[in-house]
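Question (not urgent): is this output format expected?
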Amino acid sequence: MIDIKEKGYCPTLEEIGEYINNPVFLQFCMDIKTKYKCKETIEFSSCSWESGWNVKFKKCGKKLCTIYPREGYFTVLVVVGQKEKVVVEAIIRECTPELGNIYRQTKEGNGQKWMMLDLEDSEEMYVDIFRIIDIRRGGKH
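Got this back:
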């Protein structure tokens, strides 16, 4: 088992999946890679707020999301910027109440909301996260 906080060893996506021990993680990564035709970047963050290995997905230089591994689940960071805000606010009522609450409670800084969304199953929240990523990507929602 890997140590997610050990900077000296960069884990593979599969090893991160074993650490999380939830099949939804690898499915989520595969869905992002397939849908947006992008690859993951595994990076170590020394940030005191969230140190350890994380998985980033970017397309055309734009960050789609960052995944923070947890035991049994993972957290997806999606940034809603000024350009996406109007569209996200137009569809937020159609999303799960949980995502709507997180959106409303997330403080805005520099015109952005950094939403941290915990994911442990492939139900409504899974679908909603992809809706937000679609908006972030500039695609259809």
